[in-house]
Design a protein that fits this description.
The chain has helices at residues 84-100, 117-121, 133-147; strands at 9-16, 24-31, 42-45, 50-54, 70-74, 77-80, 105-111, 160-163, 166-169, 185-189, 192-196. The chain is α+β, with helices and mostly antiparallel strands. It folds into two domains: 9-59 and 68-154, Kinesin motor domain (Kinesin); 156-201, no CATH class.
Length: 201
């Protein structure tokens, strides 16, 4: 799917480790139509949460060939030209509640360059409505904490980017923060997997 020309498809995957849906991975497709959107190649079926991909036949292969031209993918939801608010309500809101209930939760965006992963996760600064999942989730966490007066909650934040197989600590933005610091490495111990050297505030 990542090799289709100018389709601007991005997948938002929500990992939900709840008691009811143990290790259930939910996959949502978010699309951002452009002027060159491949309408003849992509077919959405929102009622069944299916997406059909129809490739054009490669005439250079001759008249007789076994080229696969059609694919169907089943999603948990299709967010076609959806607002940031719709994305949060569909993907992020339930993850916040379950995380505060004590379950591990992860939201991950995957897609080709230009698909809108950064916009989905962080949003834009033009106006308040363009906030992405990260600021919305943080806001929702604090709102939920205020309602759960019987709980004692501690919050720690790290911000890591992996680009071209290199890790970047996005909370250590000042040049002096890198002086004398060791490279970040992935470690695994009795508490799970973590990043050694990653800033945590």
């Amino acid at each position: 799917m990542g090799t289709l020309p100018d389709t601007r498809l991005g997948r938002t995957t929500s990992f939900d480790m709840s008691a009811k849906q143990s290790s259930k991975i939910r996959v949502f497709l978010r699309t951002r139509p452009t002027s060159n959107f491949a309408q003849d190649m992509i077919e959405f079926i929102p009622d069944s949460n299916n997406i059909n991909i129809h490739a054009k036949k490669n005439e250079k292969r001759g008249v007789v060939n076994n080229q696969l031209l059609d694919w169907t993918f089943k999603m948990d939801g299709i967010l076609h030209n959806a607002s940031q608010e719709q994305v949060f309500e569909t993907v992020g809101a339930d993850v916040v509640n379950r995380a505060l209930d004590g379950y591990n939760a992860t939201i991950m965006c995957y897609g080709q360059t230009g698909a809108g992963k950064t916009f989905t996760m962080t949003g834009a600064t033009e106006n308040y409505q363009q906030r992405g999942l990260i600021p919305r989730v943080i806001s929702a966490v604090y709102q939920q904490i205020e309602k759960r007066v019987e709980q004692s909650v501690s919050i720690r934040i790290s911000y890591l980017e992996i680009y071209n197989e290199n890790m970047f600590d996005l909370l250590s933005t000042l040049p002096e923060a890198f002086v004398g610091t060791q490279a970040m490495t992935i470690i695994e111990d009795e508490y799970g997997v973590s990043i050694k050297g990653l800033a945590c505030t």
